[in-house]
Write a structure and sequence with these properties.
Blueprint lengths: L9 E2 L7 E7 L13 H19 L9 E12 L8 E8 L11 E8 L6 E13 L11 E2 L28 H4 L14 E6 L17 H5 L16 E2 L5 E13 L8 E11 L3 E10 L5 E13 L4 E2 L4 H10 L6
Parallel strand pairs: 1-7
Antiparallel strand pairs: 2-4, 3-6, 3-10, 4-5, 5-6, 8-11, 9-10, 10-13, 11-12, 12-13, 13-14
């Protein structure tokens, strides 16, 4: 019996081992302000692996230049820090969609492993779809993965979400979200309001933001005069003088559309839940002038002592700011 996916992948439930799809070594330039490989470079590796999986399996066969493959839903779980010089292998395979409650499309599971330590550095559940470049609409281009396909795998228990839901998110509009976002900037986790412009050099030959560029990195890019400043989460100090910041543990990003060169993008973010040492946030990204929803991003992070490299309770001033501004109705 086939498991149906609207989009381009149908699969039968017979699972095999994960397949090696990408190999790399962590470069010094990929190390951020927390002293470890930044989230964006995990995403770079898994995006390459996703394309490689499509090619090897024969799922991604471009029929005309007006169609492309897009990651429309990306769940990430980060497990162990990786440092400069570490060798990393990215492995994965397709999964039956009945294992998840995600949006339609072809869903795959990936892991980034350190073969020297044996650690699983991060795991991912990704849904991709064929998209018409001109209309930005999904294309119905069904393909079947046979029951004996070596590319069909199962999500291990440790790769499943811990805190975030993979259900279809409630979207909301710019008119609904903007009035409830406070002007107060709660330290860390990209809360509050942020704006930036899509540069021409960020775009493909059609003038649309390239598929491999994450909207969050457009919104929070460094200015040219900040090239020598370490990138990554900002550093803070508590009343005891400890250096602390926020380490991302889980993320989920859903893409609805890609902006064009010159578009002004606005990100509206707030905490939706928190505990003694952690917080969960949601960010909505819109084209400012039209109100078009581009994407929704959820993040779970823990407060860490940067010197002791361990989780600590959220400092009181930050906790109070979270309490004043959080939006539990969006959790």
């Amino acid at each position: 019996m086939l498991v149906e996916c609207r989009g381009f992948l149908n699969v039968k439930k017979q699972m095999t081992d994960l397949h090696l799809l990408h190999e790399s070594i962590v470069d010094e330039t990929e190390i951020d302000s927390l002293g470890h490989m930044n989230v964006r470079y995990y995403m770079f590796r898994v995006a390459r692996a996703n394309v490689e999986l499509m090619k090897r399996s024969g799922v991604f066969v471009r029929k005309n230049p007006n169609q492309l493959i897009r990651r429309v839903d990306t769940y990430s779980r980060f497990r162990t820090e990786q440092f400069a010089g570490a060798k990393l292998n990215t492995l994965g395979g397709f999964i039956a969609t009945e294992q998840t409650d995600r949006i339609d499309g072809a869903t795959a599971y990936f892991e980034i492993r350190n073969p020297d330590s044996g650690d699983v550095a991060a795991s991912f559940v990704i849904t991709s779809d064929f998209v018409d470049v001109s209309t930005q609409e999904p294309i119905d281009a069904s393909t079947t993965i046979d029951s004996d396909s070596k590319y069909l795998v199962e999500i291990p228990d440790y790769g499943r979400p811990r805190s975030l839901s993979l259900a279809k998110p409630d979207v909301g509009t710019l008119e609904e979200i903007e009035p409830v976002i406070s002007d107060e900037q709660v330290p860390g986790m990209m809360s509050g309001r942020h704006e930036n412009v899509v540069y021409t050099e960020d775009c493909d030959d059609r003038g649309r933001l390239r598929e491999e560029i994450d909207l969050m990195f457009v919104l929070h890019r460094r200015n040219p005069d900040e090239e020598d400043v370490s990138f990554g989460p900002p550093e803070f100090r508590d009343l005891q003088g400890r250096r602390y910041s926020w380490a991302v543990m889980e993320t989920r990003s859903v893409v609805f559309a890609r902006p064009e060169a010159g578009n002004k993008i606005v990100s509206l973010g707030a905490d939706t839940a928190y505990g003694e040492k952690w917080r969960q946030s949601r960010r909505w990204m819109f084209v400012k002038d039209t109100g078009q929803l581009l994407g929704i991003s959820d993040t779970v992070g823990i407060c860490i002592d940067l010197d002791a490299r361990k989780a600590i309770p959220i400092p009181e001033a930050t906790r109070e700011a979270i309490e004043r501004n959080y939006l539990p109705q969006f959790a």
